[in-house]
Design a protein that fits this description.
Number of helices: 14
Mean pLDDT: 81
Low-confidence stretches: 139-156
Number of strands: 4
Strand order of the largest sheet: 1-4-2-3
Helix content: 55-70%
Largest sheet: 4 strands, mixed
Length: 323
């Protein structure tokens, strides 16, 4: 964050004049403040909020919401003039670093920081080009000024942008951050398409297991999952990984499959179903297994019909040869 941001004053501000930062809900969502209401009621104290000169809250959104519920009329605020909108957005995240957060919230913090880094990088490039043009206009260019290289990393940190972002929001690695980000992007896409339940399901899975949620989004056909499968995912009756196709089997399916291979596959499926019967615990599981058994029976009947048709065709050919 830039050092030039200045504290203007500290004063009591009317609670109705305070406004939520537009990025706060996007990053942290609608939060429950019932715990904070209890703490404030017991202590009777509220730490100062940090706001900009327009009374937009940079730090203290939860305190502001709790104070409204408790009937406060004013709140103590530290008013800071930030040098840029990017500084405000960075401060919004920085003041929330220490609190407990979900995987979704940490990832959305990272996505916001990534956008800030990108915007600052563009600003530096524009500034650098303007400076070079000015130098050329003044005929004062030199080899040194033309070879000047401005680092695009913030705070002299090293590594790729995703690694810098991951460290900042306390995600274990840049790779894990990218996985979480893909799940968030898919969830947001579902929401924009009116698939609210699908969006909520992905966020639930992300907060439980980022790797499993990422596999479901990138390797399984998530859009084709049945409502039953989605409910089983929510209830923990099946794992996301169970819906990811076996890559070796997928590769094999691209080649011609012999009848014997199909019979072996059916035999394996039936054996697996037989073992699962003893582990049935709920009515939903019983119905699921029953449906799968009926499907395998149907497959066997279809194969038997095909075999009988082949035999009849063979007999017909032999008779025609005899005549």
């Amino acid at each position: 964050m830039q050092e030039d941001n200045k504290i203007i004053e500290t004063k009591e501000v009317n609670i109705t004049d305070l406004k939520a930062h537009p990025r706060n809900e996007k990053i942290y969502g609608q939060e429950d403040v019932s715990d904070l209401i209890g703490l404030i009621s017991e202590s009777g104290e509220i730490d100062r909020l940090i706001v900009n000169p327009d009374y937009v809250i940079i730090s203290g959104h939860r305190r502001w919401l709790a104070a409204q519920e408790l009937g406060y009329e004013t709140l103590p605020c530290e008013i800071i003039k930030f040098e840029s909108p990017e500084d405000e957005r960075e401060a919004l995240i920085r003041h929330n670093i220490a609190r407990d957060k979900t995987n979704e919230q940490r990832t959305r913090e990272g996505m916001e920081l990534e956008a800030i880094i990108s915007e600052r990088s563009k600003e530096r490039k524009v500034s650098k080009l303007k400076q070079r043009k000015s130098d050329m206009d003044k005929m004062t260019t030199s080899d040194d000024s033309l070879k000047e290289n401005v680092s695009e990393n913030t705070n002299d940190e090293t590594g790729t942008t995703r690694d810098i972002v991951a460290r900042a929001v306390k995600i274990s690695s840049g790779k894990k951050y990218e996985r979480c980000k893909k799940v968030i992007e898919k969830a947001d896409k579902c929401k924009s398409e009116g698939k609210k339940a699908d969006s909520e399901l992905l966020i639930i899975l992300l907060n439980k297991s980022p790797n499993a949620a990422h596999q479901l989004v990138t390797k399984a056909d998530f859009d084709s999952l049945s409502d039953e499968q989605k409910n089983e995912l929510i209830n923990g009756e099946i794992a996301p990984r169970s819906l990811v196709p076996d890559e070796t089997k997928a590769q094999k399916s691209t080649n011609e499959t012999s009848p014997l291979d199909e019979v072996k596959t059916l035999k394996t499926n039936i054996t697996t179903l037989g073992k699962s019967i003893s582990n049935i615990k709920t009515e939903k599981q019983r119905e699921s297994v029953k449906t799968q058994i009926e499907k395998q029976i149907e497959n066997l009947q279809n194969m038997l019909s095909m075999l009988q048709a082949v035999e009849k065709e063979k007999e017909s050919d032999e008779k025609s040869k005899e005549t």
